[in-house]
Batch of 2 targets.
Target 1
Amino acid sequence: MKFCEIRAAESEEEIQKALELRRMVFVHEQHMFEENDLDEYDDGAIYLNAWSRRKDLLIGTVRCYRDKEKPNVWWGGRLAVHPDYRTRGIGVYLIRAAIETVKNQQASRFLASVQLQNIELFKKLGWEPIGDIFFFHGHPHQIMEVDLNVFHVSPQSARRKQQAVEAL
Ligand SMILES: CC(C)(COP(=O)(O)OP(=O)(O)OC[C@H]1O[C@@H](n2cnc3c(N)ncnc32)[C@H](O)[C@@H]1OP(=O)(O)O)[C@@H](O)C(=O)NCCC(=O)NCCS
C-alpha cells in the first residue's frame, strides 16, 4: 500500500506504540476496558504495526498469538486503526498481513473473536462464524475462522481486477 507499511514490531518502543493506539481505541473510544487492554496473550504475541510512510506515525495495529493449548492454532486480535485513517483499506491490509504471518508460523488454523459490527467486514474477506455470539467485557463478539489454504484477495484489489477485466 502506497501510504502505509506493515511491519512486525521489533523493539519495546514499537510494542509500546501499538499499546498506546490500542488504549486510545479500546479504552477511550469503545470503553471496553477501564485502564488498559493488556492481557496474558500479549506476552509473546506478534504485533503487526501499520506505519504511515509520510509521517512515521502508527496508524494501525493487530496482534497474533499462539493458542496456549493447541500450538498450531493461532488467534488474531486487538485489530485497531487510528480513527483519522479508517475506511482506507488499512484494516483489511492488517488482516491480510496477519494471515500471512500465521501461515509463516505453520499455523493450521487462524481464529479471531470479532466484534458484532465487524462481522460483515470479516465475512467479506472469507472468514466464517463459529458457534454463538457471546459477550466479552459487555460487547457482543463472534468467533470467526479463515481457511488458511485459500488465497485471500482484498475487496479493493478484487474490485480493481474486476474493473481491469471489464476494460478489456
Ligand atoms: C474495524 C476497523 C479495524 C476497520 O478498519 P478500516 O481501516 O476502517 O477498514 P478498511 O478500510 O480496511 O475496510 C475495508 C472495507 O470494509 C468496510 N468496513 C470497514 N469497517 C466495517 C465494518 N465495521 N462493517 C462492515 N464493513 C466495514 C469498509 O467500508 C471497506 O469496504 P470496501 O472495501 O467495500 O470499500 C476500524 O474501524 C477500527 O479500528 N475500529 C475500532 C476497533 C475495532 O472495532 N476493532 C476490531 C475488533 S474485531
Target 2
Amino acid sequence: MTKADFEFIRSLAYENTGIVLPERKKHMVYSRLSRRLRQLNLKDFTQYCSFVSNTPDERIHFINALTTNLTAFFREGHHFDYLEQVVIPEWQRKSKKRLRVWSSACSTGEEPYSIAMTLEKHFPISQWDLKILATDLDTNVLEKASIGNYSRDSVTNLPARYLDKYVRHTADNQHIQMRSNIQKMIHFKQLNLLEKWPMNGPFDAIFCRNVLIYFDNETKQKIIAKFRKMLSPQGYLFIGHSETLVNISEEFDLIGQTIYRPLGHGGKKLAKPKFSAHHL
Ligand SMILES: C[S@@+](CC[C@H](N)C(=O)[O-])C[C@H]1O[C@@H](n2cnc3c(N)ncnc32)[C@H](O)[C@@H]1O
C-alpha cells in the first residue's frame, strides 16, 4: 500500500463514515482491505483505490471492512444496572405508556438485545407501546443482528434469569437463538450517524457507545447536538467507557458513569437520581 493509496483510503473513510484513520492504523487497514482485494482478484491497493472510486456499489464493502464491531451482551454492565434501578422505576411512573430507545451503533445486536432483556419484564406489551430502534452503518453486522443467532460462548455471562426466558439453544448446542418475544421489540435499520436521520423522536434513551472514539471533535459535536434534539427533555444518553462530552457539548449534565441527561432551559439541571452500582 503506497502512501498515496493510504491517503486516498483514509479520506474516503472519513468522508463516508466520519471514522478517522491515523497512520498507526495503516496495518489494520491493510489487513482488512487485503481480504477484499483477494475476493476481487485485484493485484494491488492502487487498483483497489481506482475500483472503489469508480464503483459506487463497492463503497458498502469498503465501509463494512473498515468498521470495528467489537461488542458483547451487557457490555459495561453499570449502564444496565442503572437502567434497572433508576430509569425503569421512573419510566414506570410515566402517564403516557410509550417508550422509545435507540441503540445508535448497535453492531451485531448484543447491545439492543441486552436493552430489550432488561426492559421486557417491566413493560408488558399489552400495556406499553415500547420500541427499540437499533441502527448501524455496517450492513453485515445488521444482518447478523436481525438473525439473532450467536455462539454459545457469547452468552456465558448472561444471568440464568435471562437465558431461560429469552434465549433458545440450537440443535448443535454450539449456538443460541434469541427468542421471538425479544426480537419483536427491536427494529434494525441501516443508518449513518453522519447523514440525515429519517426518524422524528423523541427518544427516552439513546445508547451511543464505543463509536464516538472513532470520530474527530467536529463530528462528535455535530452528532451530540443532534442527539440533544432527538432526546426527550427527561431522556438519557449513554456513551462508552472511554468517551466523554467534555469539550463536545454543554447541553448535557453528567449524572452517572458515562450517563448524561439534557440540561433544561438556562442550563437547568434535572434532579440527580440516587444510584449505587451492583453488577448483574
Ligand atoms: C465498537 S462497535 C460498538 C458496538 C456497541 N455500541 C457497543 O458498545 O458494544 C462500533 C460500531 O459503530 C458503527 N459505526 C461506525 N461509524 C458509524 C457511523 N458513521 N454511523 C453509524 N454507525 C457507525 C460500526 O459499524 C460498529 O458496529
